[in-house]
Amino acid sequence: MIPNDLFLKACRKERTERTPVWLMRQAGRYLPSYRILREKAGSFLKLCKTPELSAEATLQPVREIGFDAAIIFSDILLPLEAMGIPLSFEEGEGPRLEPVREEKDIERLSIPDPEEALPFLMKSISLVRSELNGSVPLIGFAGAPFTLACYAIEGGSSKDHRKTLRLLYSEPGLFDSLLDKITAATIPYLRAQVRAGADAIQLFESWGGILNSRTYRQFALPCVRRIFSSLKDEGVPMIFYLNGSSHLLREMAASGADVLSIDGRLPLGEAFQRTSGEFALQGNLEPSALFAPADFLRKEAASIVSGAPRRGHVFNLGHGVLPGTPVDSVKLLVDSVREFSRSET
Amino acid sequence: MIPNDLFLKACRKERTERTPVWLMRQAGRYLPSYRILREKAGSFLKLCKTPELSAEATLQPVREIGFDAAIIFSDILLPLEAMGIPLSFEEGEGPRLEPVREEKDIERLSIPDPEEALPFLMKSISLVRSELNGSVPLIGFAGAPFTLACYAIEGGSSKDHRKTLRLLYSEPGLFDSLLDKITAATIPYLRAQVRAGADAIQLFESWGGILNSRTYRQFALPCVRRIFSSLKDEGVPMIFYLNGSSHLLREMAASGADVLSIDGRLPLGEAFQRTSGEFALQGNLEPSALFAPADFLRKEAASIVSGAPRRGHVFNLGHGVLPGTPVDSVKLLVDSVREFSRSET
Question: Is residue A1 domain-resident?
Answer without folding.
Answer: no
